[in-house]
Design a protein that fits this description.
By secondary structure, the protein is an all-alpha fold. The chain is about 65% helix and about 0% strand. It has helices spanning about 20-35, 40-45, 50-70, 70-95, 100-115, 115-120, 125-145, 145-150.
């Protein structure tokens, strides 16, 4: 699938995500250095639990930037939210659970599965039909995960602690 760069800064139209890939790798390397011996004690001490409030705060700040219609603020807040994702994955990697590569690859595979009208043989007549296919795939995923997940419904996996 050919994709055009989203902005003039995106670079070579033959490799529209190369710059983003380099920037993402740089972010991961920066966080690794912060969390390494000789880096930042605060970053090394963080756990999944300790970052929960930061994650929620950053998500709300993204929503606020959207609500006020400030693209530069949104860019900055999306970066802060992305940091939380990378940070949580780095902690997971330290414990041998998963890596940021696993997160990105899993998301890519999920997007492709849930868009069979784009990446498969299905057709979607409109946005409502595309959403129906998305929801149907989520049901199949829950069923494949086992009986508890299949019965959980639309709010499966949504934490009870959400505001």
């Amino acid at each position: 699938m050919d994709r055009a760069p989203t902005s003039p800064a995106a670079g070579d139209p033959r490799q529209p995500y190369a710059a983003a890939g380099r920037a993402f790798a740089g972010l991961c390397a920066t966080l690794d250095r912060l969390r390494a011996p000789g880096g930042c004690a605060w970053d090394r001490e963080q756990t999944w639990q300790s970052l929960r409030a930061c994650l929620i705060e950053e998500a709300y700040e993204v929503v606020d930037a959207i609500d006020v219609g400030q693209p530069h603020a949104l860019r900055d807040e999306l970066g802060d939210l992305l940091l939380q994702v990378v940070f949580l994955a780095a902690i997971a990697a330290d414990g041998g659970s998963f890596t940021i590569d696993d997160v990105v690859a899993g998301l890519d595979a999920k997007l492709q599965r849930r868009h069979p009208h784009v990446f498969g043989d299905a057709t979607a007549l409109d946005a409502k039909d595309a959403l129906r296919q998305w929801e149907a795939e989520k049901v199949r995923e829950r069923q494949a995960a086992g009986p508890k997940a299949a019965k959980a419904g639309r709010f499966a996996g949504v934490p009870r602690a959400l505001p």
